[in-house]
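Run: sequence + oxa(dethia)-CoA -> complex structure.
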Amino acid sequence: MNKHTQFKAEVAGMGIYVPAEVRTNADLEKTLDTSDEWIRTRTGICERHIAGKDESSSTLGIQAGKMALESANISPEEVDIIIVCTSTPDILFPATACFVQKGIGAVNAAAYDISAVCSGFVFGLSIAEQYIKSGRYRHVLVIGSETNSRIVDWSDRSTCILFGDGAGAMLLKSVESDEPKGLLSSHIHSDGEKSDFIIVPGGIGKTGVSHTAIDEGEYFIKMAGSATFKAAVKRMTEVSQEALDFNGLSTEDVTLVVPHQANRRIIDAVTDKLGIPSEKVFMNIEKYGNTSAASIPIAIHEAREAGLIVPGSLTLLAVVGAGLTWGAALIKW
Ligand code: UT7
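>> structure
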């Protein structure tokens, strides 16, 4: 390499994995005061996948990661960094990424987790982008993997209907090019003033784990749904525009929006505000619900499989999550 070489982060491979068990809205109707009709019309969700007792964020991530490496035709030994984006790590530590490293045999990789909840995958991409553009690393595996079913209160109809389990992986590879190519840019933000919008309040380092806190449900997701909804629409719209402006692009240039799959109505409101027609918006929320950090990579993979992302396409990713965190990224394929 010479000092003028420009490294771009190209998507070399992708993989996904979702657990076999499916929990439908009809299943939830049996134990909750809810209805399939309410869930579909208020969220767009019809069913979600639920991890089995021997599954965890690392086992889902291993399957997705292996598939990404195979599709990229890259051997595990060639992976330099594994970033697992998860808010449902297997255990407190070591990082879930270390279990994934072991599972896929990426013996030369450094592996660690990041926590930006639903925004995790876009935050992970922003780190991978810097590693690759600096010229320091060649292959970075970014995995969003979640077992949300373990931290939802299945008696709380305002949250449990929303979430599902799954994993998605993207292998980013360094290529030398002067053309706009691969991950063009990523844009990330946080607002800790809104940390109580979506929260699992149970203490670890703050109070230690206590029986009282467990009994009071503090290790389950609590969400201010309506405030989160409004913040999601505002922030996803803003940050999408920021990503386009940064690259001198307009919404007309976007081939496909792949938004975080939290609520169909949030996606519709964001894309309406941006003036992007629904044919250019990918949704699979009906099958998976909100899989948090896994939502965007699962959706990108499925959009590619459906032939909606082809060489030359421009994809806009936009997300919001607990923190509050939000972000966007543009990928030129
Ligand atoms: O990943 C990023 C984070 N998450 C999000 O982005 C989620 C953001 N928020 C949302 O998606 C929506 O706020 C929800 C889907 C959670 C709730 O929808 P909403 O239209 O904001 O409903 P709401 O909370 O204003 O509740 C309306 C009514 C309430 O009844 P009353 O008080 O009007 O009698 C709720 O008790 O709907 C009731 N409700 C339900 N009814 C049947 C809430 N959940 C359910 C349910 N089934 N599952």
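>> summary
The domain at 6-177 is CATH 3.40.47.10 (Peroxisomal Thiolase; Chain A, domain 1). The radius of gyration is 19 Å.
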